[in-house]
Fold Zinc metalloproteinase.
Amino acid sequence: MLLKLGVALFIIGFCLVEARGWQKDGKQRRKHKFGNMTDDQVKGFKNSLRKTNVDRFVAALDRLADKNGTDIEPSANEKAAMKERIKHLRKHVRSPKIHEDGDDMTEVNEKAGVAESLYQGDMALDDSQVDAILGEFVDGPADARKKRQAFYNSRYPRNLWGNTFYYYFDPSLTDEAKAISQVAIAFWQNSTCVNFEENSTAPNRVRFFKGQGCYSYVGMIGGEQDLSLGSGCQYFRQAAHEIAHALGFFHEQSRYDRDTAITVNTENVKPESVGNYRETETRNNNYNMPYDYGSIMQYADTSFTANGGKTMISKVPVYQDNMGSQSVSFYDISMMNEHYQCKQKCTSGATCVNGGFRNSRNCNTCICPSGYGGATCSDRAPGCGATLTATSATQTLNITIGVRTSVDYPTFETCNYLIKAPASNKVEVVLRAIAGNVQCRAGCIYKGIEVKATNDHRYTGIRYCCSDDVGTTIVSEGNIVPVIAFNRYHQSNYTVTYRSVPSSTASTILAIQLPMSKPTL
Ligand SMILES: *[C@@H]1O[C@H](CO)[C@@H](O)[C@H](O)[C@H]1NC(C)=O
Ligand SMILES: *[C@@H]1O[C@H](CO)[C@@H](O)[C@H](O)[C@H]1NC(C)=O
Ligand SMILES: *[C@@H]1O[C@H](CO)[C@@H](O)[C@H](O)[C@H]1NC(C)=O
Ligand SMILES: *[C@@H]1O[C@H](CO)[C@@H](O)[C@H](O)[C@H]1NC(C)=O
Ligand SMILES: *[C@@H]1O[C@H](CO)[C@@H](O)[C@H](O)[C@H]1NC(C)=O
Ligand SMILES: *[C@@H]1O[C@H](CO)[C@@H](O)[C@H](O)[C@H]1NC(C)=O
Ligand SMILES: [Zn+2]
């Protein structure tokens, strides 16, 4: 009897809240909040956000969604420039999905019904973050002047984990999601000075569980905070991305300087999702690192699409397919090391070259940009691959990677090549063939070949994974070009040709000038 009454009260309460959400300004835009989630799923979702006044959070997201997108809309000039870039993008035919549940967090979360009830589709915010980040949307226009900020929100650095990130696995988590979480945890632990310790009673801890979709709180909230890896999230990208949120990262496409790197193609964005493309904060700290399209925190280029069309257009067209990466980029690792002040732990040790930095877990070794290895990053990354000498004669490189019968392993295997031309020359690389179960996807999430043609080898190179990429020519900035083939699905074959060209040869347009000023606090 009591139980029944409780359920009835819950339902009435729920209806009241829903009604309020829908009646904003008499508009009824968000009828499908919580998608097609069952009442139990909604209850589970709300319970997982127990560090938050969920109704207040969701109401603020509602107001954010209701606000028209005129501030995100590109200017007429921007739009014209974007249209010009779109014309030159290759007409990729995307491969049929291997997994029906969606390729990226937003797609998974839209299907799961939670995308509109989380910040930018996959972040939970606690009450103080709701104030700091959604301040102008909380409790109506009166609060409009509350300043949005994030990395340096009012509680920084309290929302860092310090030396140890405590976590445990809820029994609801599938074996697959648990296994991939362990891989992603091992990755972040190995790449930073943060220790990850399984402990379900530590005062501050993350509970990995199977909720609706993939989401996490941002940074250490205090007490127990949830990280959901539901159906569709049992992949490395999703796990590594959500853990990065829990460590304190926001999205790459919401960096304050993102307008220098991408144009949001608002015409293709669902009207109720345009607010997700509002920059997170005007004062986030990017540690003087450039915008990296290959960041694990960068959404795929069709996120929140209304029509399947691209929602983000790169200002450097060669990087369009880098968005939505399945691997953590070197700059992600470097930034996390800055965020947790790991680099300071080595006051002496190895002299790292090629952009590497001292590994706080062993200061006599370095953490190297992809493609490089050895204690000081002076070598080619070990294993499959070769160091090749480019001459003025065209040479052919055939790469076969992976095992034909293997299906969908959790992380990439790689073959690392270093192509070296004489010191004052450049390298020309032409993609001649791509074969073997081609998977043409945003972010090249199953397989691809990456060419690092900028002088900065820390930067994620140009990635190719589509048949119509064949024929593309890249001319590097410098005389050394790392080429990395990566694969996690069946077998892949790539043929590239390479040769040394005079330094007077025009380099492919690879970079844009990004403002990288540090915020003043
Ligand atoms: C959008 O909102 C701004 C103010 O926030 C207003 O000036 C503008 O007229 C609005 N545009 C549309 C199309 O509603
Ligand atoms: C919700 O709807 C989507 C299609 O819009 C479907 O793929 C998904 O399976 C549905 N989820 C549930 C829990 O019914
Ligand atoms: C887990 O954390 C609690 C509280 O800090 C501590 O007492 C306990 O020893 C830890 N358990 C393990 C296995 O480390
Ligand atoms: C751990 O990090 C080091 C240094 O970056 C790297 O060489 C090694 O391959 C990593 N190991 C694993 C298991 O990720
Ligand atoms: C490389 O592969 C191509 C087919 O893509 C083939 O025609 C060629 O003979 C191969 N070259 C070498 C050196 O193996
Ligand atoms: C890929 O290369 C391997 C090794 O040369 C070869 O056995 C296989 O047939 C090739 N696959 C395709 C699809 O070209
Ligand atoms: Zn995210």
The first helix runs from residue 2 to 22.
